[in-house]
């Protein structure tokens, strides 16, 4: 028993953290909004790719990478899902508007398994990849990505941008690049097929998103603590008032109890634990609730100052709201846990049956 | 990350499970907060001690097994899963003992700990006073030096003392220097409750059991040998181990995991009976269950930290906030499922009343939130 991130997984998260500290403040989130300098975000993403972020879960000698191709980047790190919580929390904290969960946790490892020729460009960060396993929902980053993987039949297929029809959708978080995607009946490259393979991919996406949410929650708490220490009203820092202290203590509590659940879900996925599905859903529930609480409390504690797009808080809060609902919201995951715990809902659903 | 138990820990679990299965009383004991129930609990405590399960993490010399903190967690988990009786010795074992280990002289350790482990001496906590609850440093009970007698004369009143009417000893804070500023000038004393000048009056808690007591001290002579830590060091000595009261050792995850499993059983039973409206509560049932698991995971992370030599400090306030709110949520959810049966005097309603004390004892949750805000987040004190 040892409940702590290993040195290797920590090292990757720290490497990403160093890149982000130098290159990715709130201005990079704004760069990802419509009218912003999106190329600058892509630059940061390529730097992150260079330290191994995109290839975290890709086997070290993947076919797609070829051997002796001269990339010399060693972009497949061959880590397991234990690497996702610390890495994605770091990415989440930065708010960098990139398809991190979609690429790092879900897409890149599947491209490697499928021997997709696009893998090297995805790992280098030169091709932007997004993935959605949810049917009929707008796909994040689909309005921007070069490669889009979506559900088709009982599989997940990868398409080049010009193979699918995309219809951009405005989103509350302007850096999400949402679009509805219509894929053709034929074509594309099969990445995963059948419930078992899709479940593995889905759980990785859920786990990564939960970790992003923990990072966002932590960042909003940090911003708010700094604000209430500096902001004076009635001649004292507003952070000296108990009402403010207690609200922020509750956010800290939520974040501190969500993080271990996310770590445990990563471990469960890597270890093939029989409770993986439940642990993964738990992580998403706790992280989503923590991030929503953090956003709500941060806004309240900033007063009118936070209720503006000039101040940075909204950049993180809007992302948190988007991700809390993405990859299954808390109620959906609780319902999934309920079924696995033998709460069938039979009494209330009449003859419809469980899980219909 | 490795969330598997070692073979050694698994063997320990198996041994505990087998012993508990063979020895836990088939029928629940009467409440340990009544005179009759307390006696029944003492019998159980002595059986635990005989089999060396009463203080597993203590050194063997004092009646323990030298078990690791991991094994202590395992034992707690098994203990609660087995539905074993509440520990009426807990305030001695979990609150006083860590302080005796940290600050006691060798003589004090040898004199106090084995009798505590064996449930021969039963310890009550004497901190709160009528005028000093959350504001513990406002303590007014005083101790005056009696050089001739080689000790201190204690006078004052302690209150809300858990199981004070049934215990044999009191550990408490008394003011030895009336001139000193609030936190200074306090001393940690150990007082036998049968000493001349001590009067104990039990009174009812919210649930109607005589679980509380007032302890009046009138010129009670306590020898120097029963000062724990230095004279005037009481605040420091007491605070050094409040972590155990607020956090891990007072409330291990096993307790809540067990309650969460009972809640699930209740929900499944209600569903199977086709009870109306159970589905409305399912979301809450699952949320409470998730939070119990989250408490366990937080604890595993925390124990890893302790085992690897990191200090927990103010983080124990996070434990306290979380488990106390969790306990209420579990019981409120059960009440929703029980519907009109919720008011019947039964384990769920008793558990509910007890859960309401959680945010009050061991430092109110308002105090804990201040600690989290000031010490973990760095918000200004004033």
Structural account:
The complex is a heterodimer of chains A (356) and B (382). With 356 residues, chain A is an alpha+beta fold. Chain A has a domain at 196-340: Butyryl-CoA Dehydrogenase, subunit A, domain 3, CATH 1.20.140. Chain A is 52% helix and 9% strand. Chain A has helices at residues 7-23, 26-31, 38-50, 84-94, 100-114, 119-124, 194-230, 242-271, 276-302, 313-325, 330-340; strands at residues 129-132, 147-152, 155-160, 165-168, 179-182, 189-193, 232-233, 236-237. In chain A, the strands form three sheets. A four-stranded mixed beta sheet of chain A has the order 1-2-3-6. Chain A has a two-stranded antiparallel ribbon with strand order 4-5. Chain A has a two-stranded antiparallel ribbon with strand order 7-8. In chain A, strand 2 (147-152) and strand 3 (155-160) form a beta hairpin. The longest helix of chain A is centred in the middle third of the chain and has 37 residues, at 194-230. Chain A is globular, with a radius of gyration of 20 Å. Chain B is of the alpha+beta class. Chain B folds into three domains: 7-88, no CATH class; 123-233, Butyryl-CoA Dehydrogenase, subunit A, domain 2, CATH 2.40.110; 242-376, Up-down Bundle (Butyryl-CoA Dehydrogenase, subunit A, domain 3). Chain B is globular, with a radius of gyration of 21 Å. In chain B, strands 1-4-5-8 form a four-stranded mixed beta sheet. Chain B has a four-stranded antiparallel beta sheet with strand order 2-3-7-6, with no helix packed on it. Chain B has helices at 7-23, 35-50, 69-81, 90-103, 106-117, 234-240, 242-246, 253-272, 278-307, 316-338, 347-355, 365-376; strands spanning 123-126, 142-146, 151-158, 169-175, 186-192, 198-203, 212-223, 227-228. In chain B, a hairpin with a 4-residue loop joins strand 2 and strand 3. Chain B is built from twelve helices and eight strands. In chain B, helix 4 packs antiparallel against helix 5 and helix 8 packs parallel to helix 10. Chains A and B meet through helix 7, strand 8, helix 8, helix 9 and helix 11 of A and helix 8, helix 9, helix 10 and helix 12 of B.
